[in-house]
Design goal:
Number of helices: 14
Strand content: 15-25%
Low-confidence stretches: none
Distance between the termini: 46 Å
Length: 365
């Protein structure tokens, strides 16, 4: 039996890792190790819930250190004014980051057959390259390379030369260009500007479609902390024949007071469906710092951090989902989707502050 390990930096990464595990044959499931990097996220008690769900055999936190933690690496990042000088520094940087990261790595990666790394541009990618350990890279977010190809962006000058050096292991480049990256898993190759030979297509929707009802329950138990409260709310709404309205928040407006007014207006204007007052469920954005559980205590407020795709598995159909800028395409359990866009935001801030947002006309589908 092959030993698998997943290195995740966000809750969405954990979601995709769980989908991959739940699509395996039954006899292979529940054996993988989950590594949660604390470099850019705090996962709370997700590690214990991941183990309790049975989706993963073991979950470990990783105190991954950004290069800025090490003063000598900050010095090596400075521009020396010429390609040869900068390249000498970069060769040194790639090796030293791997060396300096080693004391913080919590597992022996060489003991695993299949290593999946989300966002290998983070230090873990440099570490595995330094140790000459082969791994599979996985796309950071859904079609994220379509919108920001960081491998090309970070290596804009003389890209072909740098990619060649990365293929030899002289320097490191993320997203499939490193020597020790076996392949780069993406959702949809057809939408990418720079598809490359190591890319393999693994559609997220296909993984989600492969879940059984029991799989969905396990996934929800891992991600939704107040699942019992959610189930009770959904049951009561069904008994009272009330529509359920899902509000997706975002870190909009600098003023939290203005943001609270904005969300209350969303509820007031869209919380009633066909003349019936809806049961309001609020899913805060992970970067939204407004305390919804205190300020909106009259409504059910879900945990901010789990991916909104998980809502497809709670066993409910929302009469309406309402957002300002979050594209709700990933939610398939809503009869109506309302995308408010720029016209709505004009009421709360200077239109110039969000004029850069494209495709922001109001849409109801």
């Amino acid at each position: 039996m092959r030993k698998r390990i997943y290195v995740c930096h966000t809750f969405y990464h954990v979601y995709v890792a769980a989908l991959k595990e739940l699509n395996l044959p039954e006899e292979e499931r529940g054996r993988a190790t989950l590594v949660l990097s604390k470099m850019s996220n705090r996962f709370g008690d997700l590690a214990s819930r991941a183990e309790k769900s049975g989706i993963f055999a073991k979950a470990i936190e990783f105190d991954e250190k950004d290069f800025t933690f090490f003063p000598e690496l900050v010095e090596l990042k400075k521009d020396r004014g010429s390609l040869p000088a900068n390249m000498r520094q970069r060769i040194r940087f790639c090796k030293r980051l791997g060396e300096l990261e080693e004391p913080y790595v919590p597992v022996d990666f060489s003991a695993y057959d299949d290593i999946y790394v989300f966002c290998d541009s983070d230090p873990i990618g440099y570490y595995l390259s330094y140790k000459k350990i082969r791994y599979h890279a996985v796309e950071d977010g859904l079609d994220c390379i379509r919108y920001r190809d960081t491998a090309h962006e970070d290596n804009a000058g003389h890209f072909k030369l740098k990619a060649f050096l990365a293929s030899l292991g002289v320097i490191f480049i993320q997203n499939g260009y490193g020597k020790y990256c076996i392949d780069m898993e993406v959702n949809d190759i057809s939408v990418l500007d720079h598809p490359m030979k190591k890319m393999v297509e693994v559609p997220r929707e296909k993984l989600a479609a492969g879940l059984s009802d029991e799989d969905k329950k396990r996934l929800c138990s891992m991600f939704i902390e107040n699942r019992a409260e959610l189930d009770a709310t959904l049951k009561k709404a069904k008994e009272e024949k009330k529509p359920i309205v899902l509000i997706l928040t975002e870190p909009l407006t600098k003023s939290l007071e203005t943001r609270e007014r904005l969300v209350r207006d969303m509820i007031r204007e869209y919380g009633t469906v066909d003349g019936r007052e809806g049961v309001i469920v609020i899913k805060p954005h992970p970067r939204d710092l407004l305390d919804y559980r205190t300020r909106f205590s009259e409504y059910l407020v879900l945990d901010a951090h789990f991916p909104m795709e998980v809502l497809n598995f709670v066993g409910a159909e929302f009469a309406r989902v309402v957002t300002v800028y979050t594209v709700p395409n990933a939610i398939h359990c809503a009869k109506q989707k309302v995308y408010l866009g720029n016209a709505f935001m004009d009421r709360y801030e200077d239109p110039k502050d969000h004029a850069h947002v494209t495709n922001a006309a109001k849409k109801i589908s």
